[in-house]
Specification:
The protein is α+β, with helices and mostly antiparallel strands. It is built from 7 helices and 7 strands, in the order ααββββαβαβαβαα. It has 2 domains: 38 residues, GTP cyclohydrolase I, N-terminal domain (GTP Cyclohydrolase I, Chain A, domain 1, Orthogonal Bundle); 134 residues, 2-Layer Sandwich (GTP Cyclohydrolase I, domain 2), CATH 3.30.1130.10. A hairpin with a 5-residue loop joins strand 2 and strand 3. The two termini are 39 Å apart.
C-alpha cells in the first residue's frame, strides 16, 4: 500500500470539496485516512489459504455452522461501507477447519473493495476448494450505506445473498436444514 499517495490524494479530495487541508481539525486527517486504509483494505495482503488450519474430521459427517459473523466491507461502486452478518455452514468430507478460521476468512475477503455477491461467492468457493467438503453454504445479510446515506435513502432495507456448493445446492433437505439453523 502506498501511504504517501493516499495522503496526497486525501489532501486533494479535501481541497476538491472546498475544505482547507491545513485547517486545525484536518491537518492530520490525510495521515489518519492512510492509516485506516491499512486496516480497511488489509485483505489484499493475506492469502486465505495460508490461514486455514485443517484437522482430521474423525468421521464427523454432520453440518458445522458458524453464524452471525460480523463484517464490515467497502462498496466498490461508491467506496462507502456496507456491513452485516455472515453465516457459514459445511459438511466435512475428511477434514474440519479450526472454527476461528471461518471468521478470519470472512475478514480477509471483506477487507477489500467488494460487492456483496462476490464476497458471498469468494467465501464459499475458497472453503469448497480448501476443504473439499460434501457441501458449503454461505449467507450474507448486509446494510449498505450507499443505499442509506445517499441514493434511495432507505434506512431499514437489507440485502441477502447466498452461495451454495455440493449438497447445499443439490439436496433440498440439506439446504433447508442450513437455512433453518441460521435463522
Amino acid at each position: 500500500m502506498d501511504k504517501e499517495k493516499i495522503i496526497d490524494s486525501a489532501r486533494a479530495i479535501l481541497k476538491a470539496i472546498g475544505e482547507d487541508p491545513q485547517r486545525e481539525g484536518l491537518v492530520k486527517t490525510p495521515k489518519r485516512i492512510a492509516a485506516s486504509y491499512e486496516k480497511i483494505f488489509g485483505g489484499y495482503y493475506i492469502d486465505p489459504s495460508s490461514l486455514v488450519t485443517q484437522f482430521d474430521g474423525e468421521n464427523y459427517d454432520e453440518m458445522i455452522i458458524c453464524k452471525n459473523i460480523d463484517f464490515y466491507s467497502t462498496c466498490e461502486h461508491h467506496m462507502i461501507p456496507f456491513f452485516g452478518k455472515i453465516s457459514i455452514g459445511y459438511i466435512p468430507s475428511k477434514k474440519i477447519v479450526g472454527i476461528s478460521k471461518l471468521p478470519r476468512m470472512v475478514e480477509i475477503f471483506a477487507r477489500r473493495l467488494q460487492n456483496q455477491e462476490r464476497l458471498t461467492m469468494q467465501i464459499s468457493e475458497k472453503l469448497n476448494e480448501l476443504l473439499e467438503p460434501k457441501g458449503v453454504g454461505v449467507v450474507v445479510e448486509a446494510s449498505h450505506l450507499c443505499m442509506m446515506a445517499r441514493g434511495v435513502e432507505k434506512q431499514n432495507s437489507t440485502m441477502i445473498t447466498s452461495s451454495c456448493k455440493g449438497l447445499f445446492k443439490t439436496d433440498q433437505r440439506t439446504r433447508a436444514e442450513f437455512l433453518k439453523l441460521i435463522k
